[in-house]
Each structure stands twice: as C-alpha cells, then as structure tokens.
Amino acid sequence: MTAPAGCQLIGRWRIVGADLWDRGYLDLGGPAIMTIGTDNNGEIAFGALQVGLNLSYSPSMVFFTWAGCDELDEVTGDGSAEMLEDGSITITFTYHNGDEAILKAKRDTSSTAC
Predict the structure, then answer these.
(1) Residue 2: band (very low, low, confident or very high) from pLDDT cuts 50, 70, 90
(2) Total domain count for the chain?
(3) CB 3.0-4.6 Å disulfide test: which of 34, 63, 69, 95 passes with 77?
(4) Looking at the domain assignment, is residue 66 inside a domain?
(5) What is the pLDDT of residues 14-33, one digit of tens each?
(6) Which structural domain, as residue segments, surrounds residue 96?
(7) Whether this model's pTM surpasses 0.85
(8) DSSP class of residue 62?
C-alpha cells in the first residue's frame, strides 16, 4: 500500500519536543528528524536512536512499526503520528517491552506536503 493522495503527513518533520527527553538529548546525534515517505517507509532519528519505519496511512495519521539501533543495541517498537490543528504532529513512540514517549514535531522548513 502506498500513501493515499490526501495524506498530510508525507515529508520531513523536525522533532521539537518530547515528554521523556530534553532538547539536548533529542539533538545529540544531529537534528532530531522524522521522515514519512510515500512508499510505506520512513525514518526517525533522535538522541542515539536511528531506526527505519514500516508505515500504514490515513489522511491525517500514520501508524508504524520500527526497527534499528539505540546506542548500538538493536531495538524495535511501534507507534503513530497524528496531524494536529496547528499543522504540527504528535508522535506516540513505543519501545517493545519498554518506554512510551510522546514527541512533538513541526514540518521541516525544506519539506512540503505532497
């Protein structure tokens, strides 16, 4: 399945806040970013975490499973991202058998909706 034509979340998002981590940790390895592609794939990177996303779509929300590395340890989980009225997104990010975090992101200035 590819993204529906009206999916507003396609693009690159700058993670600007989280309930579990401060901004210094989020940007530890570079700017904290979530990328939502049209081909069921995406990426998220913040702190020492870098993972690939397997996406499913609705017009104002995406659901995902993820796998990758956090401080060189293999990690997996799932989550979702939902468009808010102000044009930002809220991301629920859950580690398998672990923490759940709520992240907030704004569209990266170099990204536009498709």
Answers:
(1) low
(2) 1
(3) 95
(4) yes
(5) 999 999 999 999 999 999 99
(6) 11-107
(7) yes
(8) E
Contacts 24+ apart (CB under 8 A), 14-18: 14/105, 14/106, 14/107, 14/108, 14/109, 15/44, 15/46, 15/91, 15/103, 15/104, 15/105, 16/88, 16/104, 16/105, 16/106, 17/103, 17/104, 18/46, 18/101, 18/102, 18/103, 18/104
Of 98, 103, 109, 96, the closest CA to residue 80 belongs to: 103
Question: Do the domain assignments include residue 92?
Answer: yes
Helix ranges, 1-114 (H): 23-26
Report how far Cα 51 is from the mean position of its chain's Cα atoms. Answer: 10
The pLDDT score that the predictor gives to residue 114 is 44
Residue of 82, 87, 85 whose CA lies nearest to 106? 87
